[in-house]
Design goal:
alpha+beta, 5-stranded antiparallel sheet
Length: about 90
């Protein structure tokens, strides 16, 4: 999972959201590519580290609650794929 996959496969599905991209070299788990997603009463972030780590966070402004917060290491490939699916499903509800 990486930023290129996100831009190609996921970003087009998030048409009603504002996407903000940023990059940070030398993060805790390598270089970091971050996407902040805003819209539909949610604020979310997804972080892709060059060493394969994935971080996902979704905050629901209506519920005033964090509804997803997960950090997965590179060995958790199936979990990363499942988290991405849950991430997209949650934003598109």
């Amino acid at each position: 999972m990486n930023i290129n996959y996100f831009k190609k496969e996921l970003a087009p599905r998030l048409k009603n959201y504002k996407l903000t991209y940023s990059s940070y070299p030398n993060g805790d788990f390598g270089s970091l590519e971050r996407v902040v997603i805003e819209g539909n009463n949610k604020i979310a972030g997804i972080d892709f580290w060059s060493k394969g780590w994935l971080d996902i966070d979704i905050y629901d402004l209506v519920l005033d609650d964090q509804i997803m917060n997960i950090l997965l290491d590179p060995s958790e490939v199936i979990e990363q794929n499942n988290a991405i699916l849950k991430f997209i499903e949650t934003l598109l509800k």
